[in-house]
Design a protein that fits this description.
The structure holds two protein chains of two kinds.
Chain A (H helix, E strand, L loop, with lengths): L2 E6 L7 H15 L3 E6 L7 H12 L3 E7 L7 H27 L1 H23 L9 H4 L2 E8 L8 H13 L4 E8 L17 H15 L6 H8 L8 H18 L12
Parallel strand pairs in A: 1-2, 1-3, 3-4, 4-5
Helix pairs in contact in A: 1-7, 3-4, 7-8
Chain B lengths: L1 E6 L8 H14 L3 E6 L13 H4 L11 H8 L4 E7 L7 H7 L6 E8 L2 E6 L6 E8 L4 H17 L5 E7 L4 H13 L6
Helix pairs in contact in B: 1-6
The chains are: A alpha/beta, B alpha/beta.
Chain lengths: ~270, ~190
């Protein structure tokens, strides 16, 4: 059975990320995977929670991190989580190296393990670029990303995807790619099945991604293409913008809101 | 002329102070009054995405902490500097916590800018943007990601211009100064 850890990287309690993660968990379970879900929350995990998270990750074939885009990147709490995971890896690696100096026997074991790990990583790099054929306990879990935002353009999400990839590289978790969804605002924290047509792209994309995650494959070009479609593609963007603004403007008028206030300019 | 420096350089105790000193000297030579906020010691709550700054309390963040003073500086400075050790091609999370709070600087209406959907800026004048990232060892991929991020920020905040500088901490100060001077020099109208 494939063990998958899903990390919901949103600080909000009821979030679109939560909706995405719940739907992906169902698809993975349909395919026979055992799924653990971890929510980052506004405060991030305590040290104990982080240890538990890492313990779960160690026994997983795949880790999927899903996150919204905040100010062109991952939310700060989610980014901080990655920094803490990286710090733990760096510290333990340094500790293992220090141990090798004083203890000849563990030095031999450690260097043998290191050689196997490097060899496994190289095999992975030479193969399809994924974890296929490599032992998860040696190279760490295969790492996938899911990034979404209200903006429809893919470039808006690129820095966040890049951060996930660079994190994977820093802890030597095989990077399997990330799906990227735009126009996710209409989800409104509801289950994806209740959103209808405007979440169709997300549902289809996650179903395709789930199959590849369970198979331990990198995300395919087809999956990335399906996910990259805008849910508003049937309308020109200018029309989309006008429609959204008109809705906001009607709330502003009804409630007589001073929407263009400059509170910090006095 | 005022420059606001939001700095996470303290996260790199070895290289950070040297880079910060060169940054301040470069800006002072160009005639800037400098205000530095150390984001590692500032009290900054994480944005909860509550959306209040859109329609409930237009333009105002409901979280009461040191970011309130930062808003007042951002809306009247001429140059905004993000200074940070590069973390996975991005800012350190301590600096990102501040930046995540910048939504009140936008009005919740969308516009098409640079061919993309974006929010309309709230304040009529916006600062030029300078990104200063440090790496412990040269890393072309992180550098490329970081420079791309700074250009995204400039576009999304409708900055009149932007530049990014990436230095290896431990690089000689003259080299850092040269890079910074040429980057600040490209910000036309800023100095």
């Amino acid at each position: 059975m494939t063990n998958v850890l899903l990390i919901a990287g949103s600080p909000r309690a009821r979030s679109n990320t939560g909706s995405i993660v719940a739907y992906l968990a169902e698809r993975l379970e349909d395919l026979g995977a055992a799924v653990d879900v971890f929510h980052v929350t506004a405060h991030g995990p305590s040290d104990e929670e982080l240890e538990r998270l890492l313990a779960v990750a160690r026994h997983c074939e795949a880790v999927v991190l899903a996150a919204p885009v905040y100010f062109d990147g991952l939310p700060a709490v989610t980014h901080a989580l990655l920094e803490r995971v990286h710090a733990v890896f760096t510290t333990r690696f340094a500790a293992a190296e220090a141990a090798t100096v004083v203890d000849r026997e563990s030095a031999l074991t450690a260097s043998a393990r290191l050689r196997r790990r490097v060899a496994a990583l190289e095999r992975g790099a030479r193969g399809s670029g994924g974890a296929c054929g490599t032992d998860a306990s040696l190279v760490g879990p295969a790492f996938y990303g899911v990034v979404h935002s209200g903006f429809v353009e893919g470039a808006q999400r690129r820095p966040a995807l890049w951060t996930l990839e660079l994190f994977a590289r820093s802890v030597s978790w095989p990077w399997q790619g990330a799906v990227s969804f735009g126009g996710t605002s209409p989800i409104g924290g509801r289950p994806l099945d209740e959103v209808g047509r405007l979440a169709m792209v997300v549902r289809e994309g996650l179903a395709l991604a789930a199959r590849e995650i369970v198979a331990g494959r990198p995300l395919s070009a087809e999956t990335l293409t399906v996910c990259g479609r805008s849910p508003f593609a049937f309308l020109p963007r200018r029309v989309v913008i006008r429609l959204i603004n008109a809705r906001t403007r009607s709330v502003v008028r009804r409630q007589q809101i001073d929407v263009t206030a400059l509170p910090y300019a006095d | 002329m005022d420059a606001l420096v939001l700095s996470a350089l303290g996260a790199d105790p070895e290289g950070g102070p040297g880079v910060m000193a060169v940054l301040q000297e470069t800006l002072r030579t160009r005639g800037y009054g400098i205000h530095v906020v150390d984001v590692l010691t500032a009290v900054v709550q994480a944005c909860r995405g509550c959306g209040s700054c859109g329609l409930k309390t237009p333009g105002r963040c409901v979280l009461d902490d040191d970011v309130q003073a930062i808003y007042r500086c951002v809306v009247c400075c001429d140059l905004l500097v993000y200074a940070t050790p590069i973390s996975f091609g991005s800012h350190r999370s301590e600096l990102k916590r501040v930046l995540d709070r910048f939504q009140p600087l936008m009005v919740p209406f969308y516009v098409l800018r640079d061919g993309e959907m974006n929010f309309r800026p709230r304040y009529p004048s916006r600062p030029f943007l300078l990104g200063l990232g440090t790496l412990s060892t040269p890393d072309p991929e992180q550098e490329e990601a970081y420079r791309f991020l700074i250009s995204r920020h400039a576009s999304n905040m409708a900055a009149p211009g932007c530049a990014s500088v990436v230095v290896t901490s431990g690089a000689p100060p003259e080299m850092v100064r040269e890079e910074l001077e040429s980057a600040v020099g490209t910000l036309k109208g800023a100095a």
